[in-house]
UniProtKB/TrEMBL annotation:
<dbReference type="GO" id="GO:0006178">
    <property type="term" value="P:guanine salvage"/>
</dbReference>
<feature type="domain" description="Phosphoribosyltransferase">
    <location>
        <begin position="44"/>
        <end position="196"/>
    </location>
</feature>
<dbReference type="GO" id="GO:0046100">
    <property type="term" value="P:hypoxanthine metabolic process"/>
</dbReference>
<dbReference type="InterPro" id="IPR050408">
    <property type="entry name" value="HGPRT"/>
</dbReference>
<dbReference type="GO" id="GO:0032264">
    <property type="term" value="P:IMP salvage"/>
</dbReference>
<dbReference type="InterPro" id="IPR029057">
    <property type="entry name" value="PRTase-like"/>
</dbReference>
<keyword id="KW-0963">Cytoplasm</keyword>
<keyword id="KW-0328">Glycosyltransferase</keyword>
<comment type="pathway">
    <text>Purine metabolism; IMP biosynthesis via salvage pathway; IMP from hypoxanthine: step 1/1.</text>
</comment>
<keyword id="KW-0479">Metal-binding</keyword>
<dbReference type="GO" id="GO:0005829">
    <property type="term" value="C:cytosol"/>
</dbReference>
<dbReference type="GO" id="GO:0032263">
    <property type="term" value="P:GMP salvage"/>
</dbReference>
<dbReference type="GO" id="GO:0006166">
    <property type="term" value="P:purine ribonucleoside salvage"/>
</dbReference>
<dbReference type="GO" id="GO:0004422">
    <property type="term" value="F:hypoxanthine phosphoribosyltransferase activity"/>
</dbReference>
<keyword id="KW-0808">Transferase</keyword>
<dbReference type="Pfam" id="PF00156">
    <property type="entry name" value="Pribosyltran"/>
</dbReference>
<dbReference type="InterPro" id="IPR000836">
    <property type="entry name" value="PRTase_dom"/>
</dbReference>
Length: 219
């Protein structure tokens, strides 16, 4: 009965995922993933809908898109492309600038307390601007809370957050995106630019990593 349950497309905890036999994926990851949890085509369709929601809310506002690297680069690129397509074919338009920052808080499959924000030292150009933060995945919300606090210090006019994935985790701090693609079980997912120690970014679908995959690429 979480209030945010219907913000995105809900993938149940007992969802077994799609069999790998149904999809093409790089042979070098054979044995490293258990299943496909969100196929690439479904990601694209959902991203198109999120772009429309963003256009409905923010159309005719200048916005600065703050892309959170590295995991968010693919979602951000596809989302911006779809917003641009809507702008070309609509009476409303969204002039956009894109800026990149990098967050790093994971070692293997564990989030650490040690959060590094790179490229965000001076965001003074955000003062008085409408900001759309684009992040691939939100877990406990601690990372997003830290980032929001950092961005707010530069006094933007408005901040909205688009998150492709929100994990159902026990200690979610209620720091949730305004635009959510999918709500997913608390499992470690890779693909579509989400990595495990820099591997799996070259996987199109969002997949669940296998235990043997974790061991293989552990550092």
């Amino acid at each position: 009965s979480k209030t945010w349950q219907l913000l995105g497309y809900d993938i149940n905890d007992d969802w077994p995922g799609y069999s790998l036999d149904l999809f093409s994926y790089p042979a070098h990851y054979s044995g490293d993933i258990d299943c496909v949890i969100i196929p690439h085509g479904v990601i694209m369709d959902r991203t198109e809908r999120l772009a429309r929601n963003i256009m409905d809310d923010l159309g005719d506002h200048d916005i600065v898109v703050l892309c959170v690297l590295k995991g968010g680069y693919q979602f951000c690129a596809d989302l911006v492309d779809r917003i641009k397509a809507l702008s070309r074919n609509s009476d409303r338009t969204i002039p956009m600038r894109v800026h990149f920052i990098r967050l790093k808080s994971y070692l293997n499959d564990q989030s650490t307390e040690d959060l590094h924000i790179l490229g965000a030292e001076d965001l003074s150009f955000l003062a008085g601007k409408n900001v759309l933060i684009v992040e691939a995945i939100v877990g406990t919300g601690k990372t997003m809370k830290t980032l929001l606090k950092h961005v707010e210090a530069f006094r933007p006019k408005m901040i909205k957050v688009a998150g492709l994935l929100v994990k159902r985790v026990p200690h979610n701090s209620a720091c949730l995106p305004d635009y959510v693609g999918f709500e997913i079980p608390d499992r470690f997912v890779v693909g579509y630019a989400l990595d495990y120690n820099e591997y799996f970014r070259d996987l199109n679908h969002i997949c669940v990593i296998s235990e043997s995959g974790k061991m293989k690429y552990k550092i």
